[in-house]
Design brief:
Elements lengths: L14 H9 L7 H32 L1
Helix pairs in contact: 1-2
């Protein structure tokens, strides 16, 4: 999104900022870029949930 003047810090805690920019209609970004960013964010959410679940299963099996 840097090509459109949007620069964000790296790291999971900053994903909220990217989501907010994608949801803000006042931010001048093509709809295709919003859609692709949304797909990436959904993918990150899915993977994050999978990792949490896998870690919980691993942790419970080690005890």
């Amino acid at each position: 999104m840097a090509e459109f003047g949007l620069v964000f810090p790296q790291g999971v805690p900053h994903l909220k900022e990217i989501r907010a920019a994608g949801d803000d209609e006042d931010v001048d970004v093509p709809s295709s870029i919003r859609e692709i960013a949304g797909l990436y964010l959904e993918h990150i959410d899915t993977l994050s949930e999978w990792v949490k679940s896998a870690f919980a299963n691993f942790s419970s099996s080690v005890r």
